[in-house]
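Quick question: what would this complex look like in 3D?
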Amino acid sequence: KQEVTQIPAALSVPEGENLVLNCSFTDSAIYNLQWFRQDPGKGLTSLLLIQSSQREQTSGRLNASLDKSSGRSTLYIAASQPGDSATYLCAVNGNAGKSTFGDGTTLTVKP
Amino acid sequence: DTGVSQNPRHKITKRGQNVTFRCDPISEHNRLYWYRQTLGQGPEFLTYFQNEAQLEKSRLLSDRFSAERPKGSFSTLEIQRTEQGDSAMYLCASSLMDQPQHFGDGTRLSIL
């Protein structure tokens, strides 16, 4: 059974700082991995999708890496802004379409 | 692309009642997923459809839960004889095969 762990559970940083969020998973036989952002009371917004054959993906100030063999992914956020405050979720997807989510990291960026 | 739409946004009901939620996916997406999320937790997979076929169901989906996707378009999730433990946010997502999943804003279910 796939298990996904996200560390830390919460993180508070001053504006402008670079930061790294971690995601680890127990079964390396994954199809792809997706990072999401969730604002309070809202659904999930997809940030980045990394296929199992890829090592990283970038979008603006975000960079996600994937090391399938060690069961790890990181989400790097450069020059953080107060608007980045949200919960960040990692989802590991098997080829049968089922997604397993971590419990997220709640990020607070202080002005 | 109007996004994934879920209705209602919030449902309050008494224990023992039946409830039904609706999800309208992005029109060209052939995959549709249902998840349940409780406070402080990540979403838990419930079931998914490829077109009208329900391809996988989680063990979380007891026999009180049923989902349909007639004609491969919108989907409904019904919960019969609701219990306190059913209180959660129910999220729907859709995608094109292996492309990123797009989520709706969810239906929050509160059981009195």
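Answer marked as accepted. The CA atoms of residues 49 and 80 of chain A lie 21 Å apart.
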